[in-house]
Amino acid sequence: MNGGESRGARGSVVDGVRRRPKNRRAQIAATSAAAFGAAGYHGVSMEDIAAALGISSAALYRHYPSKYALFREELLRVGQAFTTAVEVPAEVRSAPERLRHRLAGLIGATLENRATVTLVRWEGRYLEPADRAVLDRQQSSVLAGFDRELAVLRPELSAEELRLVSTAMFGVVTSLADHHAALPARAVHKLLGSACMSLHECELPPAATVSEQSVRAQIPAAFKHELLLRKAVELFHERGYPNVSVEDIASAAGLSAASAVYRFYRGKSDILAAAFRRAADRVSGAIGPAVASTPHSAAALDVLIDQFVADTFDERALAVVYYAEFGHVPAEERAVLRNIQRLSVQEWARLVREVRPALTPAEARFLVHAAFAMVIDLGQAFGNTPLAGRARVTYLMRRVLLG
């Protein structure tokens, strides 16, 4: 120490008197955002946040009455940051420039709040209904702004089709929260901005004529382990992993008691890990056959894109759970799953670069993550409606990856 003074998370000490830092609430917000982003809302306690700040739990409670208050404030803060970031000055009159301005604002806000955007994407459902309604209005305001610019540029599109393209753009940009890959901010703006502009310029295939229901294999009654896995994933998707008990899973699978589950799985976390392995293996297992059965990388990508969209449509709940509940997978499984995902993304990125050699390996990986997120988001937003049928989603995924 120099001059009898020290500074840090605990504040400062001047002449033997400890003083609270003026930006304590900002420190708490930043620390809680990082903690929630890493472990999820249910995986963090007030004691964890206090320890990370180097203060007592009592000191933390003086600023926030509960963990939920911190969680709510952070999500709604980012929702408001999005709405502010996409505002366009009145002097910007050109529709293409207005759209680019909105995209740049959304990309910038996502980069600045990457950890919390993860929560907005996957844990907003844990907000209380009134707060969730506020967050939904904030996101709707962002999408409506994109709709207005797109309506000028693409007057032939219906209101529903405009929202489809806006939602696809939003998924591409906020995909930044789904991974930890790094690129300079300027490169991210250029790459994702260009991907989004390619979406606005595309000619959408015709909407499906009928609702496309999922194609799911029937599970024989004797295959209890498969039935348990499916029912558990459906419950995790509907309620969130922390809000589902082994008893709930047993009941959904038609078992008489929770103890019957333990004949097939060691517990709830074991079921979640099995679901994640299934999802990861499905993506990784498709790569080898696609490459071996096609004459070149572009054709292999066509096969992989078709398969990814089909799998996502057929197993929507599993696709969402894979992103939303990763923090609840046991630590030893997380390491294995991350490695599988990393290798899968690398292989997709390699194929993309063989078609688009101007891309760097990092840029190609960013586009793969963006394409995956966009497909998941469109499924979340539009379900099985003809508006977002498989042909359209497949086409949009190709646009993101191949420009």
Automatic annotation (TrEMBL):
This is TetR family transcriptional regulator. Residues 1-21 are annotated as: Disordered. Residues 22-82, 222-283 form the HTH tetR-type domain. Coiled coil: none annotated. Keywords: DNA-binding, Transcription, Transcription regulation. It comes from the Bacteria. Residues 45-64 bind DNA. Signal peptide: none annotated. PROSITE patterns: HTH_TETR_2. Pfam families: TetR_N. The keyword DNA-binding applies.
